[in-house]
Amino acid sequence: CDFLFFLESRYLSFDDVLTWSGVSAATPTEEMNGAGNLMDFLDEPFPDVGTYEDFHTIDWLREKSRDTDRHRKITSKSKESMWELIKSLLDAWSGWVVMLLIGLLSGTLAGVIDLAVDWMTDLKEGVCLSAFWYSHEQCCWTSNETTFDDRDKCPQWQKWAELMTGHAEGAGAYVLNYFLYVLWALLFSFLAVSLVRVFAPYACGSGIPEIKTILSGFIIRGYLGKWTLLIKTVTLVLAVSSGLSLGKEGPLVHVACCCGNLFCSLFSKYSKNEGKRREVLSAAAAAGVSVAFGAPIGGVLFSLEEVSYYFPLKTLWRSFFAALVAAFTLRSINPFGNSRLVLFYVEYHTPWYMAELVPFILLGVFGGLWGTLFIRANIAWCRRRKTTQLGKYPVLEVIAVTGITAVLAYPNPYTRRSTSELISELFNDCGALESSQLCDYINNPNMSRPVDDIPDRPAGPGVYNALWQLALALIFKIVITIFTFGMKIPSGLFIPSMAVGAIAGRIVGIAVEQMAYHHHDWIIFKNWCRPGADCVTPGLYAMVGAAACLGGVTRMTVSLVVIMFELTGGLEYIVPLMAAAVTSKWVADAFGKEGIYESHIQLNGYPYLDVRDEFTHRTLATDVMRPRRNDPPLAVLTQDSTTVEDVETLIKDTDYNGFPVVVSRESERLIGFVQRRDLTLAIKNARQKQDGVVSSSVVYFTEDAPQLLASNPQPLKLRRILNLSPFTVTDHTPMETVVDIFRKLGLRQCLVTRSGRLLGIITKKDVLRHMAQMMNQDPESIMFN
């Protein structure tokens, strides 16, 4: 609340300034030069004033002021008539309507994506003869000939070799299935990269680094457009189905934000105000995570902790509502057929013990080390992609990585299946009805216990065989994910990171379980693990490992723990998850503060000021401001002595985003600041609508027209586009304070003065360059202005 009050009090609206200044009567000079009815044509707003160009940063203070003005006008008009009152109520409810629409569409798209991925993933191995649109599981659900022991086998589902040759077993059938598996994977990935390359280049990647940058106030036109939404939805299905080591969770955040941007265009309240639009996008990001993980509360916390730059309390409520609607919509579709929102929902029946914190913390250490390794290796590979010939052949790169992935993945059953199914199996507790290799324990024939309370048992040959396959799968996933993330197809990182952690966790869990069984008399097991008791749950270790690795890569903490416990449906395992997540973050932060998304933001040179970064260098505003000592003087406009031709020449010869307005070039007393885009549009519109405006017309920013001779052309009044309260600091202001101001107020630029005299200007790009220089990085890596 204090922050909003500061915004309102610090940045006066144009209407307020004019009201407080008063409107002067026509002066004799105005009558002399025929300007008695001078037209301030901005009294009638024209399109695009106050908007921003592509790859520019918005002015948060300006957007807040405009929304305050709009709200004030609606409130005052609502007292005039019943119709105006109804319009004000509709305006107040428009935010909730947008949230409802975002939740419905994002939930529906997530359900469709889940169903399509399930079908197309199984299509690589075979087809359902009774209904080709059924996945393997759905096909056998409908069969009356399926037995419990062979629940994955039914006459209606046939593998490609059996369908083509009539033989389901043998070397020939294996080779044919192998070949068609690779062929389908190549086809899916080729279609995905081709659609992205031709129709929507912004549909590639995870999307979260760009979403973070957009929410910080940066403009990337088309990144949240209709074509991006359509192509990202289609190609996400193709990319995940191809079997590449990627997930759909990150791209679903991008898809949900595209939905939010689409519905913003229906309401002028959001379409004409970039600040309000970003509040909607923050809520949409929460809805995206809600449908990605089936975790509505975790989605809201993810948006707050990881994505959003400005997150007022009102946005928190609306994010919660959007996440709720999205989760409800996905639950109604029930894409997994288990009445759950995710494929790997699990419930454990055994409590954890204090001694198990040691392996949990070790998994946290592994997650931090894996996160550090992945970030450094992936960024190095992506930098090589951008700076070498490799970046010129994105289609060939995708095809090559897909081919290698498919060829190496098929022989191992744990890498052949989809990553979500792999995580689901690793999370599962071994009950009496499980048929997985991981549950191939040697049972005691005299055992008679409830199904949910099976004691620890010695591992059978299937478990040891599965351990070797999981170890190979772990190495494969670690290596291939490094080269997959960042290619020109939709690619999420949540699921591959969770898979790495889940594999490592399951291996550790089985090891601890067997140690507890064979050495229950050891002091570490004696107090809590008695013979015949169900002591260790390997699936819990898999879940903790998944959380640790995901936290090591993304540096998430609170939202990560909430997402993971929403997956399990129980609060009992929060402490192990917290211990692993915190340890993972500590270990990863010891090698570098940036998570994978911040690292990609730096790699791409996006102008993003991270609120979590600390600036401790002892520099002053005068060290950063422009112009520097040997630079040309600062480009400025005077309040009443610049002509239209001078302004147009200045705009043509420079590429600055705005210009300070001073009393005169001699005094350089600051009056205000005018945006380049507004100036260009104002002059263009004035030439079309206002008679007498020519190149020699004087442009003035004062309330009263300057005293001109009668022979002079009619002057042009542009006071209404002038920001009369630009943010200023003195030349001796510490840069630590300046950086803090830019972060917390979302400034575009800041003017530097001394005793009211203009000295220079500091832009967001200048701040980022200075911070990079202080950290011994290339200041020119900030590519966008």
From TrEMBL:
Domain CBS residues, every copy: 625-689, 722-780
Pfam families tied to this protein: CBS, Voltage_CLC
Gene Ontology molecular functions: antiporter activity; ATP binding; voltage-gated chloride channel activity
Subcellular location: Endosome membrane; Membrane
UniProt source species: Amphiprion ocellaris (Clown anemonefish)
Record-stated family: Belongs to the chloride channel (TC 2.A.49) family.
Highest taxon above the source species: Eukaryota
Name the UniProt record assigns to this protein: Chloride channel protein
Major site of localization recorded for this protein: membrane
PROSITE patterns according to UniProt: CBS
InterPro entries to which the protein is assigned, alphabetical: CBS_dom, CBS_dom_sf, Cl-channel_core, Cl_channel-4, ClC
Taxonomic classification: Eukaryota, Metazoa, Chordata, Craniata, Vertebrata
Keyword Acyltransferase in annotation: no
Topology within the bilayer: Multi-pass membrane protein
Gene Ontology CC annotations of this record: early endosome; endosome membrane; Golgi apparatus; plasma membrane; synaptic vesicle
TM regions (residue ranges): 89-113, 178-203, 224-244, 280-304, 357-381, 393-410, 466-486, 493-512, 540-565
Record keywords, A-Z: Antiport, ATP-binding, CBS domain, Chloride, Endosome, Ion transport, Membrane, Nucleotide-binding, Repeat, Transmembrane, Transmembrane helix, Transport
Entry keyword annotation includes RNA-binding: no
